[in-house]
Amino acid sequence: MKVKNKRITVLGMGKSGYGAAKLANHLGARVFVSDKGNEKTTLSNANKLLVKYNIAFETGLHSKNIYDSNLIIVSPGISKNSKVVKDAVKLKIPVISEIEFAFHYTKSPIIAITGSNGKTTTSKILFDMLKNTDIKPVLGGNIGISFSEQVLYEIVKPKKNQIYILEISSFQLEIIKNFKPNIAIFLNISNDHLDRHITMDEYIKMKFRLIENMIEKDIIIYNGDDEILVRGFKNITQDKIKFSIKSQTKHFSLRNGCVLNGKNKNILSENNFSIPGKHNISNFFAAATCAKSLNVSEQKIIRTFKSFEGVQHRLEYVKNINNIKFINDSKATNIDSVITAINTIKEPIILLLGGRNKNSNFRLLLPHIKASLIKLVISYGESGGHIKTVIGDAVRSYSTIDLNSAVKKAHNLAAAGDTILLSPGCASFDQFSNFEERGNHFKNYVKNHI
Q1: Does domain 100-307 match CATH 3.40.50.9100?
Q2: How does pLDDT run across 226-261, given as a tens digit for each residue?
Q3: CA separation for the pair 7, 87 (Å, rounded)
Q4: What's the CA gap between 263 and 105, in Å, rounded?
Q5: Residue 403: is it exposed, middle or buried by C-beta count within 10 angstroms (0-12/13-18/19+)?
Q6: Alpha helices, DSSP H, located in 64-116
Q7: What is the pTM of this model?
Q8: Alpha-carbon span 104 to 400, nearest angstrom
Q9: What is the pLDDT of residues 284-301, one digit of tens each?
Q10: Options 3.30.70.1170, 3.60.40.10, 3.40.50.720, 3.30.450.20; CATH of 7-93
Q11: Rounded CA gap, 106 and 87, in Å?
């Protein structure tokens, strides 16, 4: 794709848009960036683009200037059904996603990891397994630095044996044309982002776009315990490798609390995993199956099983105050993630739920609330009242205005031995710009005000 001297508009000035603007500018395009928001991060990125690269921008609106373009690059936060995208299509201006744009300029192979839950954890586990080998792993996509910015680094300073590990969301797959990974890892599919995709069928369709350009020599690694994935891959011709914690597989299996390799040899106890929960063992197996396909040694894989420290905002220990434990699970933005969290913790739980509802059905929590150690639910924010209504009399519950109030209320009602768990089950956008900001705010409030 030749873009030198072409007029390119980048929609969105978050991490993805910022990276795409830098890459397009480096390739010689005449870049214009537009973002309807004017949040602190947006304005900071805009000023950097102007001062460092002389890239023009607008914030607070999408003006008609965006249509004076040969190409429009869309950040993941902007839907294919948004007015600005539909208007561009009517004007016959090509519209592509940020990962599609970056894909055209890399020579390195790509591992793409998708799923409703566990993408960040699995990406970082795989990175840990591949580092200090002959392979040079690079994290990107929905995690860390954008794919576009990583590709820019690759162009400026190429590395031998580089391979991308990209965390890929359904949003990023909406507007692709040629993008394809060499290895695609599918972790699971559950209800999520229905505020954007509207139906579960549409959400699943977007996830499966990841493989639509893959060829026979490419590899699909998928969760054999997920019925939607099993059905979806039934008639796929590409090389498929299943991972599972419930049944025997080619590389790793879990039986009677022990991990067995492909030769049925016991290589590790379940108790030796560095982070708890069956969901995390599944994530480890997904990453390890990929690592095996890249000829990483079993010893290196086992070392990662034992030493990986987990990721921020995913069941992250914050503090213990008078034998009351605080856990940050801000990355839990859907119901399945909340269920996983409450089933992992073995102490009485005061659960903090709230934020902006993504059209999730909180009734799905009710049987798990009744069967778990939850003693109290405190809902907060934009969806706080709705959640309290849905919870009903399943457990004692309160609704508060914001996260600070919820944390304070939880602490006042907690007893020694309790765990206060922030696992919101919602997007963060009523109070925060992303789940990281929400998680960091929670941690700072606990450490400085409790």
Answers
A1: no
A2: 999 999 998 887 889 999 999 999 999 999 999 999
A3: 17
A4: 41
A5: buried
A6: 83-90, 98-103
A7: 0.85
A8: 48
A9: 999 999 999 999 999 999
A10: 3.40.50.720
A11: 30
